[in-house]
Amino acid sequence: MQRPLSGFRIIELAGIGPGPFAGQILADLGAELICVERPGAGLGLGPEAIERRGKQFITVNLREADGVNLVLKLVAQSHGLFEGNRPGVAERLGIGPAACHAINPRLVYARMTGWGQTGPWANKAGHDINYLSMTGALQAIGTRDAPPPPPLNLLGDYGGGSMNLVIGMLAGLLKAQSSGEGDVIDCAIVDGVGAMMGVVYSLAQVNLWQTRRQANLLDGAMPFYRCYATKDDRFMAVGCIEPQFFTVMLETLNLDSTEFGGQMDPSCWPRQHQTLEELFATRSRDEWAQLFDAVDACVTPVLDYQEATTHTHADARAAYQTIKGHVHPRSFPVFASVPNEPDHSVNPPGSDSRNILESLGYDEAHITQLTERGVVR
């Protein structure tokens, strides 16, 4: 039983942020993922990083002509390649889309950047927080009386970036199979986040969203969709948007629905906020979690990343495994007919260089020469 991408070879030109995670997803799905790292660079996440699992690693000096030729040899035998350099860098190195397609016209060449390949900011530096700030997403997050908080890098780098890249690569591979032609894919984080913001524009069309922060359906403005502090300074997440779940929450909390007020009555919300804040503060998080575990009210404990791995639901789904002392999330999505267990091996930089060179037809003398010259490590 092979995984969905078995038989596909994809080259990852090593970078940081969304690229390594996209590569991990593709490797988890069964692709032969060859990561080309530059000497002294790596992925910036440490030798045991989960993003390294299931990949082969070769360290190549791309400032040497022989290093560039080596990558092009890989391109000739691959289905896809992705890189995360600023626009024009890959071209200057001699491994841009034109050079690669001259060797392999079927290659899917994906380019991962923050701002995209075109536009006045295409070569501008940036990070997750900057991309979010330019899409309206960052302004919408947080409380009205404080600056917007950085939502980790999950929303921009990984949601708008990695998933954007993976979707593009998979669609490109399907297109190449049917048409025999490769493509160049512009994967910009601002585009990915902008697309995810479509729901905000849709809500605004029916007057359910405004630009003011903490004044909307999903941003904590409403008492039935926010987090509440508990007695032990932890939190419970309340998400009972639908009226039937709202009713169950009130029943579980022993609150009279008539006295509490209507769910969608804005005049009641200030008092409802206060009532729920005071009530949730009377018990510990785990006491509330146990109470709500038995009902369907969309009320759940807020876990930290370590607690998440041992929750009964995660345990039942084998969502996490500890391999050599390191926690690994399972691969996703889960396929019914193929193995879902990823390759948990995490290889250090350059560990697969010799095997990859031999697969490309390099003999021992040539490998020794490339190594001694520092072209390959």
Structure notes:
With 377 residues, this protein is of the alpha/beta class. Helix content is 38%, strand content 14%. It has 16 helices and eleven strands. The protein has helices at 18-28, 65-76, 89-93, 97-103, 128-133, 154-179, 189-196, 198-205, 243-252, 257-260, 269-280, 285-293, 305-308, 312-316, 353-359, 364-372; strands at residues 9-13, 32-37, 55-59, 80-83, 108-113, 183-188, 225-229, 235-239, 299-301, 320-323, 326-329. The strands form three sheets. It has a six-stranded parallel sheet with strand order 3-2-1-4-5-6, sandwiched between helices. Helix 1 packs across helix 6 (154-179) and helix 6 (154-179) packs across helix 7 (189-196). It is elongated.
Which features does this protein show?
alpha/beta; 6-stranded parallel sheet; elongated; 16 helices; 377 residues; 11 strands; 3-stranded antiparallel sheet
